UniProtKB/TrEMBL annotation, chain A:
<feature type="transmembrane region" description="Helical">
    <location>
        <begin position="263"/>
        <end position="281"/>
    </location>
</feature>
<dbReference type="InterPro" id="IPR001851">
    <property type="entry name" value="ABC_transp_permease"/>
</dbReference>
<dbReference type="GO" id="GO:0005886">
    <property type="term" value="C:plasma membrane"/>
</dbReference>
<feature type="transmembrane region" description="Helical">
    <location>
        <begin position="6"/>
        <end position="30"/>
    </location>
</feature>
<dbReference type="InterPro" id="IPR052157">
    <property type="entry name" value="BCAA_transport_permease"/>
</dbReference>
<keyword id="KW-0472">Membrane</keyword>
<feature type="transmembrane region" description="Helical">
    <location>
        <begin position="66"/>
        <end position="87"/>
    </location>
</feature>
<keyword id="KW-0813">Transport</keyword>
<keyword id="KW-0812">Transmembrane</keyword>
TrEMBL record, chain B:
<dbReference type="Pfam" id="PF00005">
    <property type="entry name" value="ABC_tran"/>
</dbReference>
<dbReference type="InterPro" id="IPR027417">
    <property type="entry name" value="P-loop_NTPase"/>
</dbReference>
<protein>
    <submittedName>
        <fullName>ABC transporter ATP-binding protein</fullName>
    </submittedName>
</protein>
<keyword id="KW-0547">Nucleotide-binding</keyword>
<keyword id="KW-0029">Amino-acid transport</keyword>
<dbReference type="GO" id="GO:0016887">
    <property type="term" value="F:ATP hydrolysis activity"/>
</dbReference>
<dbReference type="InterPro" id="IPR003593">
    <property type="entry name" value="AAA+_ATPase"/>
</dbReference>
<dbReference type="GO" id="GO:0015658">
    <property type="term" value="F:branched-chain amino acid transmembrane transporter activity"/>
</dbReference>
<keyword id="KW-0813">Transport</keyword>
Length: 295, 240
């Protein structure tokens, strides 16, 4: 029977992890919602952002969090370009299937470029505050995990405010929900889709930087992430950002708690078990609510 | 006027079709399936460019203009079936109708106007649109289309899928839109109810106007009644 301290620690870590997963999954949800695109390369961009954060720290000596000032606008622009130049050329009839192939290729290209630029050596940021931690009722919480969670909360909060309170956010939601009607009220759905993609990649920039704080990174790490992230958005309900967030919290918690009896490697299976269960019993997802997307 | 239009390389759907929609009136297009009624609306809203013919709005020739320009010229289209933004509130839906309106004061003024015209919209202002009934959603769509104070509203089968009570309400709301000064071009399968609401009627068959005139006259015509307004199914083919 695990000690109270260990249990509490797992729960807290699970929640912190869930918050990060929620941010990482939000971008994936946006791509699918806007354009029915399955963006396999999202996690590759995550790792790219992590590498850029590492590089900033290693070569320029700046705190990795500062790299956000460059990576967020850069990734936003890349997302707009990606949508305008490549994804918009896919034919509507086979869009989703072809997007898997296209983004798979992009992921491989990114992995290859990272390997070329930084070699396959595993990298880890050495931060002054990297090993700092504090105690909370017998649990030990690493400061970097808290910072990562904080980043996720700020990013998701900003995304929420953007979607709810700005004209662009409304136009984006309208484009996601009914592109024909959106066009008829004068929304330029092509332009909005481009910006929506940019937004998705911008969240990858934030997520990747958060990840870099306490993860060992290597070029093929993205494969480790795309499975769980895809599982999260299916469990949450494709196209629903709040659904993805709820699923992320739950699965993050589950993974953390299962690590106690099962160890890290086996704890990962919680994502795949949840994915199978969702597809078997409730394919439209568990958390999207009454209006969740259907497959 | 005299519009020819079609899809891709297929034979033209509209062959020399003409209709005029005077301000403050409801013009109703009826006809059998495949006559080209939806095509008329697609051409009129700029979604489908005509192969020949002209589209004139308020004295301005807008032939070939895309949906953005048609919207700017005051032509609003309400699609067939469900076209509300389901996960947005009624307020968000209606205000999005004024997406192209930069003037905040004008937007607020129009919002107050449509809330008065459509009490259901005012009553459910904060509700998620997807949770409303079919008839209520249609009214939200009407309200949304009126936000830009259009000259003409194009309605594509507004009563489709609605129960009789909701259908009655919808036609009442169409009349109220007309009374408020907007011109309405209405396409309907439910020909009898539509002609009862309309001022002018137009029977479309195989892409051409078969008969047109005051709606009351069309309703009264016994031959038309048999052919288009619910006669025996076998008779309909005689029209071609």
């Amino acid at each position: 029977m695990p000690s109270g301290g260990l249990l509490l620690q797992s729960i807290i870590l699970g929640l912190l992890l869930g918050g990060l997963y929620a941010l990482l999954a939000a971008g994936l949800t946006l791509y699918f919602g806007i354009m029915r695109v399955v963006m396999i390369a999202h996690s590759a961009f995550l790792i790219l952002a992590a590498y850029l954060a590492w590089w900033c720290n290693e070569r320029l000596g700046v705190d990795p969090l500062l790299s956000l000032l460059v990576t967020v606008p850069l990734f936003f622009g890349a997302g707009v370009l990606l949508q305008r130049m490549l994804l918009s050329r896919l034919r509507a009839a086979t869009l989703t299937m072809m997007s898997v192939l296209l983004t798979f290729a992009i992921a491989l290209i990114i992995e290859g470029l990272l390997g070329y630029a930084f070699s396959g050596t595993q990298r880890r940021i050495q931060l002054g505050y990297g090993s700092a931690s504090f105690g909370l009722f017998g649990a030990r919480i690493a400061v970097v995990k808290l910072i990562a969670f904080g980043l996720a909360v700020v990013a998701l909060g900003s995304l929420y405010l953007l979607m709810k309170r700005t004209s662009f956010g409304w136009a984006l939601r309208a484009t996601i929900q009914h592109p024909d009607a959106a066009r008829l009220v004068g929304i330029d759905t092509e332009r909005i889709a481009g910006f929506g993609f940019g937004l998705g990649l911008a969240t990858a920039a934030v997520g990747g930087t958060a990840l870099s704080l306490d993860t060992t990174i290597y070029p093929s790490l993205h494969w480790h992430w795309i499975g769980p992230l895809m599982a999260i958005i299916v469990v949450g309900g494709l196209g629903s950002v709040p659904g993805a967030a709820a699923a992320a919290m739950l699965l993050g918690l589950g993974q953390s708690l299962l690590q106690i009896p099962m160890g890290t490697t086996w704890a990962q299976t919680v994502f795949y078990v949840a994915l199978f269960a969702t597809l078997a019993f409730r394919p439209q997802g568990f958390f999207g609510g009454r209006l969740a997307q259907r497959f | 006027m005299d519009v020819q239009a079609g899809y891709g390389r297929a034979a033209p759907v509209l062959r020399g079709f003409s209709v005029a929609v005077p301000a403050g009136s409801v013009v109703c297009l009826v006809g059998p399936n495949g006559a080209g009624k939806s095509t008329v609306l697609k051409v009129a809203s700029g979604l489908l460019p005509p192969r020949s013919g002209r589209i004139v709005v308020g004295g301005v020739d807008l032939t070939g203009a895309g949906p953005q320009r048609m919207l700017a010229a005051g032509v609003a289209l309400v699609l067939q079936g469900h076209s509300v933004f389901r996960e947005m509130t009624v307020e968000e839906n209606v205000l999005l109708g004024a997406y192209t309106l930069k003037d905040k004061a004008k937007r607020a003024e129009r919002a107050a106007f449509v809330k008065e015209l459509f009490p259901v919209v005012a009553a459910r202002w904060g509700t998620l649109a997807g949770l409303l009934s079919g008839g209520q959603q249609k009214q939200v769509e009407f309200a949304r289309s009126l936000m830009i104070d259009p000259r003409v509203v194009l309605l594509d089968e507004p009563s489709m899928g609605l129960d009789p009570k909701a259908t009655t309400t919808i036609f009442e709301q169409v009349a109220r839109m007309r009374d408020a000064g907007t011109a309405v071009l209405l396409v309907e399968q439910n020909a009898r109810r539509a002609l009862e609401t309309a001022d002018l009627g137009c029977v479309l068959d195989l892409g051409r106007v078969h008969i047109s005139g005051p709606a009351a006259d069309l309703l009264a015509d016994p031959q038309l009644g048999e052919l288009y307004l619910g006669g025996r199914p076998g008779e309909v083919n005689k029209a071609s």
